[in-house]
Amino acid sequence: MIRRNFRALVVLVVTGIMLACVPTLAPASAPMPTFDPNSINTVIAQTAGAAATQTALKLPATLTFTATPLPAHTPTETPTPTFIFLLPTVTVLPTMVKPGSSSAQYECQIILQNPKNDSVFSPGAVFDMTWQVANIGKNAWFSSDTDYRYSSGDRIHKASIYDLPSSVLPGGTIDLTVKMKAPAEPGTYKTEWRISVGKNWFCPLKLTIIVN
User: Fold this and answer.
1) Residue 172's domain is classified under what CATH number?
2) Closest by alpha carbon to 208, among 165, 156, 148, 149?
3) In angstroms, rounded to a whole number, what is the distance separating the alpha carbons of residues 212 and 209?
4) 97 lies in a domain?
């Protein structure tokens, strides 16, 4: 009897120890929370809004610009340059006859005349009259026996005869100058001079002036 009771006690003790060693069962795990994909956008929007609010608080006050109108510009007129063209006076020389082409022993060709015919002078004006002539005859004009002298017309010269300044061979040229004085009375005056070699008078040198 005693022995049975002892065995039963041992069985209970062993059973109690075994039960004590068995791990306590964990409670049923809580269900996993459901993930909302829109929650990230919500967090980003909230963060951006908060950042914008903080930035706006730190920014200085907005500056207002007032446009100032510029003064009206009145264009200045640029003067148009005026060009003045000065054309030189062209003196057309008379056609010169070739030396020796004249059949005469003594012949001339007037090349230039200064002053020209019909030039106007004041009363009593003194001037030099010059003819440039070429020897186109067959004979030379030697200064030893050739001169030029007053021939006819109004006497407006100071001397009536001049020696030839130098000899002139056929084809050569020479300037013949006469000192003259305009008459005191207004009017038109004409005079004529010629070259002379002995009894040969040739080469009429004419001048017409107007005294005014």
Assistant:
1) 2.60.40.10
2) 156
3) 10
4) no
